[in-house]
Design goal:
alpha+beta; 3 helices; 28% helix
Length: 120
């Protein structure tokens, strides 16, 4: 599934990441140290029935937070906001039979939860 996204590097392995209540998450580990690892999520479309709208909202909120951080003079905003990785077809998610998946760069710190509320 990860190969359908425009990710950097070669995938070494995909392993479960935590135990989500709504979505299933997987760590996509890349071979080279200089390429990022990723989080692949299976979107629970029983809860998020309009996946296009969900993904567009994530993109818009992420861009809003990034602009606010840059306006405050924050550095390294790529590490302080999500980096959404589009599918190779340009969409923000991939459909596969009965499931939809999205991909983001792994590496957000736990402090992001606090930072988001400060910015909004």
């Amino acid at each position: 599934m990860a190969s359908r996204f425009a990710l950097e590097g070669e995938v070494e392995e995909v392993v479960p990441l935590g135990a989500g209540l709504i979505n299933d998450s997987y760590r996509v580990k890349t071979v080279a140290e200089e390429t990022p690892d990723y989080v692949l999520q299976r979107i629970n479309h029983a809860i998020f029935q309009d996946v296009d709208l969900l993904q567009e909202n994530i993109r818009r909120i992420t861009e809003h937070i990034r602009r606010k951080l840059e306006a405050r003079g924050e550095r390294d905003t790529e590490r302080k906001t999500l980096t959404v990785v589009p599918a190779k077809d340009g969409k923000l998610y991939v459909s596969a039979m009965f499931d939809c998946f999205d991909l983001t760069v792994l590496g957000l710190a736990e402090e992001l939860k606090t930072l988001v509320w400060e910015v909004l």
